[in-house]
Design brief:
By secondary structure, chain A is mostly helical. Chain A is 63% helix and 0% strand. In chain A, helix 1 runs antiparallel to helix 2. The longest helix of chain A has 27 residues. Classes of the chains: A mainly alpha, B mainly alpha. Chains A and B meet through helix 2 and helix 3 of A and helix 3, helix 4, helix 5, helix 6 and strand 2 of B.
């Protein structure tokens, strides 16, 4: 059963959507881990944003496809959502304020 | 007064536990919602399902919408705050804007997905706040919280969250939020029973662990540590049975939030202005802050969805889509700005109203 039809849909289209979402999620995870290891908050948060977008794409596909009605897929969707929410709760650590520039040196005495 | 046993953490001044005092803190953190829940549950059982129609909407204007504005205000009111969280402050609004454009372009696929995600995320956000408030009052009362304590407390809150979400998602029929239809996940029925058992088990563990820690530290459990757990349980358990109470849960969540955000605001203003605390200072700063957030809330949830109808969409569509997007932005903001581990957050949250309320008397004999 499909609740609302995708424009120009087809099973191949839906499979591609899932694949695209999964690639985004994996890319985002990779970036997040790199950001955490290298202590680059921008990469970490950017990676998490990509994870969220990828999850959104997969989630939208699941919601409108027959797969929604299988217990495994619907349970995976819920657990995936909870995992994403948990990840987003640690979205961005506070960036410490940059140190103030050092005061100009006093001119040397001749 | 008996001396504390050696090795026992000193018991803080009883008043130090509360931001304002026992009555106000208990009422706002959960007392009012527990009372309202029991009353509405009783009325519902007697055939009065919605005794005050429209009350939740009215309270939304006064409390719930300002609470969203308060979190945006806290993030965006100074450049240094934005610099601390640049992706959240500058990146997430663009992401949400893109999702809203997607929802308006694709009202039958993207919009329901956005609404669905929001509806799953919202109780998770409530749960996060309940955990945070429990830990905050533990810190304020000097009650020790180790890793195991934290894991058990979180386990209970998670179980409670999953229980309410699963119970709603077992039904495979369509749900409706505003004018947007969304599908439910159609989870297997046994999951509802399993999560309810998990709530009971984790509830018992929660109490046992609190008791064990209290015995180990040789000090009583401050009752307010139990209040967020009881409150959340009632929100979810009574809420799923009594629709009129369910509609008011966001209001009670916002009350909790505003108490803490207000205390933080006073503490920061006191430190930034270098002013001496006084009643007029508290009243002036509080009124200014509340009015600003009242207007901010009306702008976010009243004006923007109405303005979006100019694009040719009905308010029944723009409202749920924009409500979802604005609230997801709020979930992100709250997730980063209230980390108790951050000393710039954790330390000011030990603030007591008394600090700002009491007028400092000039020293006698001072020139």
């Amino acid at each position: 059963m499909r609740l609302f039809p995708y424009p120009g849909e087809g099973e191949l289209f839906l499979a591609r959507v899932v694949l695209a979402g999964a690639i985004l999620v994996l890319t985002g995870f990779f970036l997040t881990i790199v950001g955490m290891v290298r202590r680059q908050p921008l990469a970490r948060s950017g990676g998490l944003m990509i994870v969220l977008v990828g999850f959104f794409v997969m989630f939208s596909d699941l919601m409108w496809s027959d797969g929604r009605t299988t217990p495994l897929a619907s349970t995976a969707a819920l657990l995936g959502a909870v995992l994403v929410f948990r990840l987003m709760a640690a979205f961005e650590p506070a960036t410490p304020p940059s140190p103030s520039p050092s005061p100009p040196r006093a001119p040397r005495k001749p | 007064m008996a001396a504390a046993a050696p090795g026992t953490p000193p018991l803080p001044d009883r008043r130090g536990i509360y931001f304002v005092n026992g009555w106000v803190d208990v009422a706002l953190v959960g007392g009012l919602s527990v009372l309202a829940g029991l009353i509405l549950w009783g009325l519902d059982a007697r055939g009065h399902p919605d005794p005050v129609p429209g009350l939740a909407f009215f309270l939304g204007w006064l409390v719930n919408w300002p609470h969203f504005s308060a979190s945006s205000y806290r993030l965006y009111h100074s450049k240094s705050n934005i610099a601390q969280y640049p992706v959240t402050a500058l990146g997430i609004p663009f992401l949400m804007l893109a999702v809203v454009i997607g929802a308006f372009s694709s009202p039958l696929t993207v919009a329901p997905t956005l609404v669905k995600l929001f509806l799953l995320w919202s109780p998770f956000h409530f749960m996060g706040q309940s955990v945070g408030i429990t830990l905050l009052y533990a810190r304020r009362s000097g009650f020790p919280v180790g890793r195991l304590d934290r894991a058990v407390y979180s386990g209970f809150f998670y179980a409670s969250y999953l229980s309410v979400v699963v119970s709603k998602e077992v039904d495979p029929s369509l749900g409706v939020f505003g004018g947007v239809l969304y599908p439910r996940l159609g989870l297997p029925g046994w999951m509802a029973t399993a999560t309810q058992i998990a709530v009971i088990l984790y509830g018992a563990l929660f109490l046992l662990q609190l008791g064990r820690t209290a015995l180990g530290a040789r000090r009583p459990i401050p009752p307010i540590l139990l209040l967020p757990a009881v409150t959340q349980l009632l929100w979810f358990e009574i809420g799923r049975r009594v629709p009129s109470y369910d509609q008011m849960v966001p209001f009670f969540h916002a009350l909790q939030y505003l108490l803490i955000a207000w205390a933080m605001q006073l503490k920061e203003r006191l430190a930034a202005s270098g002013a001496v605390g006084s009643k007029s200072f508290v009243l002036w700063e509080s009124s200014k802050w509340y009015l600003l957030n009242l207007v901010g809330g009306a702008l976010l949830f009243g004006l923007i969805p109405r303005a979006a109808t100019r694009l040719g969409f009905a308010l029944e569509f723009t409202q749920p889509v924009l409500f979802a997007a604005i609230q997801i932005h709020h979930f992100f903001v709250d997730g980063v700005i209230w980390k108790l581990r951050n000393p710039n957050v954790g330390n000011p949250l030990l603030f007591r109203l008394e600090e700002a309320w009491k007028t400092e008397e000039p020293a006698r004999g001072a020139a």
